[in-house]
């Protein structure tokens, strides 16, 4: 059976190609993709800044309807709306065996090293397929992996009742981290974002916003917190300047979470004495270990539908990527089976 897919060919080339579906193995699920959302990682792959293995169909945030199942599949059946936890772990390395499989030494990802969801169809093993509860649209279901990553980050940051939280970056991830911070008990959540459109959306959702182009963010945070600084600072923009600024925003005993993907060629200086004297905690957060199920349970309460701002057919993927590059959007969804 032939199907259309957006395949990364290497050398910054993404092409629409016709592919043939492989035969279903006993534990495989054939999915007719209903929605796939564009992530920053997809751009990094096309730009040659992320270790993909071309030729590969990209797209790791996706959901669709089960078309067929292998003979041993038990958890889903044809017609079910499902979402994908897009990672395969070896199960044999130290990290897999101590409950940290997201740090697996031989991890593979759908849409990175295995064919993913920017396609009309895909074949995925049952163990990474999750049934979506009633009332969730395919577009929102496609965001489950992204939400799971954010849940892992929030759990790492250990936000507590009454905490003050500053989030640097007000894109989709920044808004989502703000929502989860509030759910975790934060009494004040500041979103630092220079883009007027994104800042307005954040303000409309009840968050305190700061325009980094027109105000001194450090001074504003100090004034808002009686000179104490925030309890948790989250870098969600993937920029070295905002990563550096987290150290200026967080107060004594505070936590800094590096969540945005700062390009690996950038680095920053940190004074060990500052970490020691203020007893700071610096954390990273990588993908979404054991949080995909939690993410599905949270989807209905996060009001994500308004953050899916653009919709395109797969044949218009170039236009979709252009839209996602602009600042006047949040999530861009592809609908591979819409013509």
Report on the architecture of this protein.
There is one protein chain. The chain is α/β, with parallel strands linked by helices. It has 2 domains: 2-143 and 304-335, Medium-chain alcohol dehydrogenases, catalytic domain (Quinone Oxidoreductase, Chain A, domain 1, Alpha-Beta Complex); 148-284, Rossmann fold (3-Layer(aba) Sandwich), CATH 3.40.50.720. Helix content is 27%, strand content 29%. The chain is built from 11 helices and 18 strands. It has helices at 40-46, 94-97, 138-141, 144-157, 172-183, 196-204, 217-224, 240-249, 272-278, 292-298, 317-325, and strands at residues 2-10, 13-20, 28-37, 56-57, 61-69, 81-84, 87-88, 108-109, 121-125, 129-131, 164-168, 188-192, 208-210, 230-235, 250-258, 281-284, 308-313, 331-335. The strands form 4 sheets. Strands 3, 5, 6, 9, 10, 17 and 18 form a 7-stranded mixed β-sheet that branches. The chain has a 6-stranded parallel β-sheet with strand order 13-12-11-14-15-16, with helices on both faces. Helix 4 (144-157) crosses helix 5 and helix 4 (144-157) packs across helix 10. The longest helix has 14 residues, at 144-157.
